[in-house]
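User: Can you predict the 3D structure of IS4 family transposase? Sequence below.
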Amino acid sequence: MITSFEQQDVRINDKLTNNFAKQLERLGCDDLARELGATKRTPRKCSAVNLLVSFMAMISHGRCSYNIWAMFLSQLIDDTISKKAIEKRVNHLLVQLAKGLLEAALKVHHEKIVDPVLFSGFKRVLLHDATHLGLPKYMSHVFPGSKNGHGESAVAKIQAVFEMLTGNFIDIHLGSFRDTDLVDASRANQDVRKDDLVIRDLGYLSLISLDEIISKGASFVNQIRSNWIISRECNGHRIDMLKELTKHKSLDIDVFLGAKNTIKCRLVSVKLGEKAAAERRRKAKMNAHKNRQPSKEKLKLLGYDIFITDVPREKWSSEKVVQVYANRWYIEILFKAWKNGMGIEKDIPNNYLDKDRVELYLYMRMLQIVLLIMPLYHITSRLAFAKGRQISIVSVTKYIIDHICITTLIDSLPKHIERILYYCSYEHRKDRTNHIERLITGSS
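Assistant: Sure. Here are the predicted structure tokens for IS4 family transposase:
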């Protein structure tokens, strides 16, 4: 017997279900489900749209179980559905449906989030980065993490490529902690096109990956390790990086990379402030093995940011190179919103015992971000910027999650906009700028 409180707890707002259902319909949810075999051609009780709408309502509600899901679905279609009936539908085909919908949603055009003048001449600006999500330990056979003193751990790894000029994710790939960034760089390079700009960090750096980008007529900006073989001239002597940096403080020189001098590009370096350098050195010591502490030379080199790019000086000064690379903060802020704002890492249910359930949960959470959170963030960011303010995506995410009727919030945006601008804006600080201000103004 369901109590009145439970009935109220599972009641779904009509605007919420109708709006999200319409979004799934526009993405071709039922057609894709039939194509994949994830649903019967003529479902007797519920369509794929209803199944996923009720799942989204459940995870927004914060309690995940087949029983709760069945109650939400029963309320939605005004019929009684057993948890066993839902359990039978949760398999790799439903996971493929959620993944396919996410890929379709990624193609939807959003608002520009950067000044295109900085990136003039590039058709796309691709930020490639990854984030890790801790999972219950018993999932280590599916999403293996690192081995530690407590045995095996379970960690999922989300690789994402974000296109800055449109504000779109163009690729999201779910794997495990042990899937290397180098392998994913080659996978993502298959989608790189002429006149693209690819921005990545150290983990994705290899001569093979850079050569793949260049061969497609695209450009790159990348951090580089100081221990790479770098020469000033083809077949020349290796640069003593610390000596060069100590002598010149900053650099903007032409170099050749690798032992065979296969790639010619610019090397740009800047000296960090004392606080930033000290923090970087502190983290390096903390993360190092007790018997493998960083050398004095490495600690000194941590006081510099070192970049490589094949974009010519006529287009970008060394200051512009640094400003462009700073745009990586944006995708890191998005990851922060996923983990801190939505609580994805903390909210993965402990009773999700198999790969299909975990992957379905993660793909639906990411679909929620792309369809519901990002559009609202773009709208409020544009309105806030016109007033000289910047919106925190973490605060916006929490605001949306706290208001469970998410798409209802978007429908009634005029009523909520002042609250969002007031509660979700970055606090203005005279002593420092926040990350979004750095992206917009180019300040350091």
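Residues 1-16, 405-409, 429-433, 437-444 have pLDDT under 50 and may be disordered. DSSP finds 20 helices and ten strands in the chain.
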